[in-house]
Amino acid sequence: LCANALESSGIPRFSLVSNSIFASKNSCDGEPESFSRDLVDMTDAMSDCRSLPTSPIAKARKKVSHIRREEQCAVLEALTKTENLSQIFSYLGEKELLCTASLVCSKWANTATDAHASLMLISVGCSTSFISGVADETCGNDGPLIDESENYFASSMESSIAKSMERTWSFLNDKFPWAAFLSEGAFKRVYRVWNSSVGAEEAVSVMDVDLIESTGNKNVVGAELAVSVMLSSLVRRNICPNFVLTRGVFTCAFEPPASHWGCEKTKRPKGDFYCPNQRGRKPKQPGSNKRGRYQYIRMELCKHGDVEEYIKRQPDQVIAMHEARCILFQMAFALHTAGDRFGMKHYDVKLLNFFLQSANDTDICEVDNPHTVLRYGVGSHVFSLRVPTERALIAKLADYGTANLSAETNGQPVTLAQFTTIENTPPDYLILGDAAQQGFGHDCFGLGLCMLHLFTGLAPYEEILESVTCPTNLKKKLKRIWEDESSKGYDVIRSLILSDVYEDENGNTEGEPDETVYDTLYRFLVLIGIPKDQFESNKQGKVWRAITSSLRSLDVRSTRNNPHRSLSRKAAAEHVGVDAAQYENDRKIFSLEFGTDPCITRARESLQSMDGGMELLYSLLSFDPQKRASPLAVINSSFMTSLREDPNQSIANEPDIVHSFMAYSTR
């Protein structure tokens, strides 16, 4: 198999060789000597294999011979090179990559992760350039870069990969005899299921690939699959536990039966829990006219739900300050690790996309082990998150359909793809328009809104400020900037606002503009205030001028002092004065600095009592993306100092349960 992959320049295909070829090793040094015993086993296994899946291209060029023992050193040296491993691993299926190849050493684990992500992308017809961030260009000025025969085998490989992941209707019902509907998003539905193979509950996400492809969002499926398996590798390797673990992916020609899996109206048609003694008819297979392409993603079930839901279940819908700080730390660590390892920008960071899983097994005795410690090594510091065992929770990031791994997009102009949850759109996107840049700043601002939500409790900021709407005069000015086609530099926002507006066949305008962005920008101004440093105002000053001229009362005063101004100018000034008065009143209630709203007051008082709390919040919520705290800066901020271990003291008390994640430690 190795010889075939190294000598053939054709498109590789799946291995038909037993999983025992790649023996599991715990070594992480990556030296050739550590593979010697494995390669002997590999050679013996290949000698017993009557035929290898050699492509016709390879056969035409050179007959592939079995690996001879005297060539062992050369092959071992080749196996330490990432480019060779990548080609070899492209033969392997999901089980081989997860359960065998990734266990040999760190280098093999990294390469297996990329191969697994590529496998996910190919399975739904997406380009593997998503992983590398390089544009997928198969044609140049002189014609195709790949000849027709290789294109044929590329499409054959994609077809074989897709076929290998297909499962039958019987498999679906036998493997998951019980299910309950959990939630539904733009492109997927999520269920809680009983997996009869492992005897435990899981979460299963189901996506209609044909529907998504018809709307031009096929890459959403690819991103969800590829990023989820890449980040899951960090969980398996104990590098970072703060991602929802993906356990497997398969496809089926049919969607799950609502009669047994549930729906929005009837969430648990077969009861609240799986009962092995319960008998009943299995759902009948739908007709051929119901066939399609449905992607099923098996994930760990986070039984505490998302963080927003978790907060709402607490007394007074508030969590303790220490618990909020520990959850924020884990969120920051997840974003730092994903960015450091894969360059990931999530673009939809919010509490709804962080889920909570118990840190311990269900059989842990809380009386014998009253506390649990999550230890994170970051640089020269070790952070100990010590909490009561009954509330020892791990925050896990999920929902990667909007994620981007390409380093080339950093600094590029924003596109509609970065406008995900409109209420969480960073203010620089709204102020700068097309001149705003893609990058990690979006996630940092989202992390700031998460921090605010953790300490206000109850609800996200847009629900707390639901009564706050954009003043009339400011809205008119912003409309001229954002919606008028003669206004240059705001095409993306215009497309967002007018996405549901169209002309019918008679030329009549149909649909309603989505005006969420107007209230969103104004609410940020109410919460944080008008920044003194109006960044990029000399280049992109339209929105800044609209803000300052509407919400500051200077225009009204100057009009009153100048009786020679026209009545129309006076009327306009009075109108601006109304906007300024509304802004001042809204600030009195909802300003982070001095607002009287109970939720805002609770958050402010809590953060003021914690060293560096308000400073960190303001840094994350900075209008200027260049001044926002990064996830690593959050971890190393004074706000997290109390979590640091004293190197001169013992790690933990004797009965404490300790989970350590020290991959980033330099101690």
List the helices and strands and how they pair.
Elements: H1 2-7, H2 36-48, H3 56-61, H4 72-78, H5 82-89, H6 94-99, H7 106-123, H8 129-132, E1 139-140, E2 143-144, H9 148-164, E3 166-167, H10 169-175, E4 178-184, E5 189-195, E6 200-208, H11 209-214, H12 218-236, E7 246-252, H13 258-261, E8 294-299, H14 307-312, H15 321-342, E9 354-358, E10 371-379, E11 381-388, E12 393-397, H16 427-432, H17 441-456, H18 461-464, H19 472-482, H20 491-497, E13 502-503, E14 509-510, H21 516-528, H22 542-551, H23 554-560, H24 567-590, H25 598-608, H26 613-620, H27 631-635, E15 657-665
Parallel strand pairs: 3-7, 10-15
Antiparallel strand pairs: 1-2, 4-5, 5-6, 6-8, 7-8, 9-12, 10-11, 13-14
Helix pairs in contact: 5-7, 7-12, 15-17, 17-25, 17-26, 19-22, 23-24
